[in-house]
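Hi support team,

I've been running sequence recovery on a batch of backbones for a student project. Most finish fine, but this one hangs at about 90% for roughly twenty minutes before it completes. I'm not sure whether the input is malformed or the queue is just slow. I've pasted the structure tokens below so you can try to reproduce it. Let me know if you need the job ID as well.

Thanks,
M.K.
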């Protein structure tokens, strides 16, 4: 929408009074009365003005959620004034050209409205200093205010990832200057000045629950981890439904309360979903295989993954850039978790459960935790791998069963030569693969499987090796949560002391 430029009247000649004829009409049209100076009339675009900050309204398009680090700026402006001019438009022109924003203008009665320069304007208001500004009505007429704000934000430090996301989202709402339509994604990418992948990640943050967005804005959660949480989906594959938001909030609470990394938190969510699924099954119902394990990609050492709400849903990995604070946090032992007690149909009280049933349920959960751990690129420290490798070597009678379980895990995860159907052939092919990473993973998997096969044996009393096994899983990136039955074994062997 175009608007007619406000006129610039002739100046008073020396010796003229209040003005008559054309001059008086110009003054009245401009809204000037009495002794107001004619030089207060609107100048041409590009002219530098010195304005009373009380006559400037903030821009509703401004994506800053807060003005940070203001003390130093206020002190500097109080002593030296505002160094760098802001940009202003006539409020009337802005509202005509952006009718969709007109109702959100905070002070529509003020003559000017800001483009870039909100921190300088706030400091000028606080100190009572004048606000130098360049008039740019052309930005409103050409509908380029959004791009000017985004460009200004990109050149300055201190914006949170959420503020950056809001800035890019502002471009998404922008109307094309030559056509009556919103910008498409490629146009947004071009004008935002970021790579397409970066734009997608920023915009994904705005689909997270408000509590998670606030954590990212305040710096309690990194952008990388926030993006990884945004990939959590419900049963129908939606990332923005109430169920998906519940998963995302649960992931954030695990990271905040238990100090888990984002990957460990998502592994815990998978295990919790399996536990909830089994809790709803009757004893006569055959137990399903449980949720699929993320198939990790090899191109990045810092990886997240998509978790689907359904216990049987597939999980897809996503490669994320490193640098997130949460990804480097120390992993912690998991708190005790309750194993669901299945009720008989029609019974008012839970039926007593055979300890071996509880033991089997715990073994199913540990098996999933082992798979989740092996799916990670950073599945164990070298010392942890060495302990399991030594144990497997020193107990050769355990090798056959351990190799069979490890083979099943690795083939399901598509690690190594999946065409080899027998464990012996598989590990022989791994040994000659000249792939040190695969050989190390396979050796660790056998050691881990040896511990798990032993711990899962029915009617066998647990010992210190079994306790070390579950405590390792709890402290690992699998973020395993000990069951009530497992906690009882720990207490028994420690004499009632954790």
């Amino acid at each position: 929408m175009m608007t007619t430029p406000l006129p610039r009247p002739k100046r008073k000649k020396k010796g003229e009074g209040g003005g008559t004829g054309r001059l008086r009409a110009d003054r009245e049209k401009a809204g000037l009365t009495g002794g107001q100076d004619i030089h207060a009339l609107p100048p041409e675009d590009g002219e530098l003005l010195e304005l009373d900050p009380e006559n400037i309204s903030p821009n509703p398009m401004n994506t800053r959620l807060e003005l940070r680090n203001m003390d130093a700026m206020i002190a500097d402006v109080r002593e030296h004034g505002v160094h760098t001019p802001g940009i202003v438009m006539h409020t009337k022109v802005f509202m005509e050209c952006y009718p969709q924003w007109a109702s959100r203008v905070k002070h529509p009665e003020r003559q000017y409205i800001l483009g870039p320069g909100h921190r300088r304007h706030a400091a000028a208001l606080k100190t009572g200093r004048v606000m130098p500004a360049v008039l740019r009505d052309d930005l409103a007429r050409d509908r380029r205010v959004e791009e000017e704000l985004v460009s200004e934000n990109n050149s300055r430090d201190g914006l949170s990832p959420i503020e950056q996301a809001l800035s890019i989202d502002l471009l998404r709402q922008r109307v094309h200057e030559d056509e009556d339509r919103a910008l498409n994604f490629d146009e947004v990418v071009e004008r935002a000045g970021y790579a397409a992948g970066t734009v997608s990640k920023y915009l994904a943050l705005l689909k997270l629950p408000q509590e998670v967005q606030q954590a990212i804005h305040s710096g309690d959660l990194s952008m990388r981890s926030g993006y990884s949480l945004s990939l959590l989906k419900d049963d129908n594959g939606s990332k923005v439904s109430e169920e998906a938001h519940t998963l995302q909030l649960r992931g954030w609470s695990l990271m905040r309360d238990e100090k888990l990394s984002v990957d460990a938190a998502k592994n815990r969510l998978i295990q919790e979903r399996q536990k909830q699924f089994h809790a709803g099954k009757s004893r006569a119902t055959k137990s399903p295989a449980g949720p699929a394990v993320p198939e990790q990609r090899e191109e990045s050492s810092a990886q997240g993954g998509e978790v689907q709400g359904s216990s049987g849903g597939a999980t897809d990995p996503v490669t994320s850039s490193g640098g997130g604070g949460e990804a480097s946090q120390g992993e912690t032992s998991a708190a005790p978790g309750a194993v669901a007690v299945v009720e008989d149909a029609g019974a008012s009280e839970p039926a007593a459960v055979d300890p071996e049933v509880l033991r089997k349920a715990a073994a199913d959960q540990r098996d999933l935790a082992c798979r989740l751990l092996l799916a990670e690129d950073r599945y164990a420290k070298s010392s942890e791998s060495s302990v399991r490798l030594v144990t497997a070597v020193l107990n050769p009678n355990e090798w056959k069963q351990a190799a069979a379980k490890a083979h099943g895990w690795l083939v399901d995860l598509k690690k190594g030569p999946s065409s080899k159907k027998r464990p012996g052939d598989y590990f022989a092919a791994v040994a000659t693969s000249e792939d040190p990473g695969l050989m190390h993973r396979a050796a660790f998997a056998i050691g881990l499987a040896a511990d798990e096969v032993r711990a899962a044996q029915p009617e066998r009393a647990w010992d210190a090796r079994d306790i070390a096994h579950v405590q390792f899983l709890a402290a690992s990136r699998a973020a395993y949560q000990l069951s009530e039955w497992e906690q009882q074994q720990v207490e028994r062997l420690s004499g009632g002391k954790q």
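--
Follow-up from support: It reproduced on our side and the slowdown came from queue contention, not your input. Residues 402 and 450 are 5 Å apart (CA to CA). No action needed from you.
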